[in-house]
Amino acid sequence: MKDEAKSQMGDLKLIRKPSQAVIWLVVSALLALGLRTSALPQVSFLGIGIIIFPLIMLFASALGGALPALAGLGILGSVAFELFGVDGLWLLPYLGPFTLAFIICLEKEIPFFKASGILILTYVFSVLFVFLMLQHAANGDLYGAAASAALKGLEDMPFRDPFLLALWRSGFLQHGQDVSELIVKSAPGNGWVFRAEVLEQFYKQIDARIRFLLSALLPGLITSNAIGLSLLGSGLALKAAARYQTAPTLGMPPFSTWYLPRILGKRMLVLALGYLLTFLHNSPVVQLAGQLMYNVFATLYAIQGLAFVNFTLKKRGTKRSLRYLVMGLMYFLLSPAAMILGVFDQFSDPRKLRVSALS
């Protein structure tokens, strides 16, 4: 099957393996259905989908082929249209170029790290394009429009008040009323609802939190998420493809041997220095530039730190499943620790992988 896959690389591989094509179509459909039927479908679709959907496209392309990947994109797009109307179709330029870029890299067998660079640039361009178009459509207040849409969805929820009660009890919201005052009132059918002034306080806090989260989302998408998806995401997809012999590995080296070349490591130090200098200036633009520089530095070195951890655990004979669990926990919960390990590995070279002063 590997020879067959290789022999057809010159032509577009619409379906790489029928069983995998079906699996990833079903995965796309079930994910879309699950988000569509969730408690807050619009919030869930955006909040979860914006991270998960590109990863699904990578696996669908590498394991199933171009046809199931694009068909899955169509399914996600149709659900987005159902939830958001015409605005939901912006999901297509968000995911489409990234998916097509990966498909082309597979067909052309572009070397892995070069392909990852192409994916990073494609993803960043797509995110910025969609953001600018949506910002224009919202008359320059995209975050406000998104917060208003979320509050409208909350208002229409059949169990709005129990949901808000859970948020209040968790400390996420504060009602702002005197402790001696009742914050609820009776409702028809022996029920209860929050008083109007309490709801107003809740909505103001939710609006502010949504705006804050969205303002931090774009810098993270075009730096940390772009790098993580394009390197780790595509790497995992190719690893799975190698197991099922559905796509070329693009010459991807074992993850335990990944490292930054010294010249690139020195450039990362410039980013770190630039980030530290932003503490001397209070300009929002300078602060944003500093955050972008830190994100790039931290993400690349966190990935190198994970490679070092994988190398160490593999050398000790640790089971693959446990290695993946440890690396996953470090990446999502202890990324600063992974970054520090990456910096240590870069300057100490404990793995002895570099063969020259420039490597």
Overview of the structural elements:
The chain is built from 13 helices and 2 strands, in the order H-H-H-H-H-H-H-H-E-E-H-H-H-H-H. Helix 11 packs antiparallel against helix 12 (320-333). Strand 1 and strand 2 form a beta hairpin. It has a two-stranded antiparallel ribbon. The protein is globular, with a radius of gyration of 23 Å. It has helices at residues 2-7, 18-36, 41-64, 66-84, 91-108, 112-137, 142-155, 160-169, 196-244, 262-277, 284-315, 320-333, 335-348, and strands at 184-187, 191-194.
Secondary-structure map with pairings?
Elements: H1 2-7, H2 18-36, H3 41-64, H4 66-84, H5 91-108, H6 112-137, H7 142-155, H8 160-169, E1 184-187, E2 191-194, H9 196-244, H10 262-277, H11 284-315, H12 320-333, H13 335-348
Antiparallel strand pairs: 1-2
Helix pairs in contact: 2-3, 2-4, 3-4, 3-5, 3-9, 4-5, 5-6, 6-9, 7-9, 9-11, 10-11, 11-12, 11-13, 12-13
**Poorly predicted residue ranges:** 1-10
Coarse structural class = mainly alpha
Q: What strand line-up does the widest sheet have? A: 1-2
Give the helices and strands as they follow along the chain: HHHHHHHHEEHHHHH
Radius of gyration: 23 Å
Strand content: under 5%
Mean pLDDT: 89
- What is the CA-CA span between the terminal residues? 35 Å
Largest sheet: 2 strands, antiparallel
Number of distinct beta strands: 2
Shape: globular
Annotation field: number of helices: 13
What is the helix fraction of residues, given as a range?
over 70%
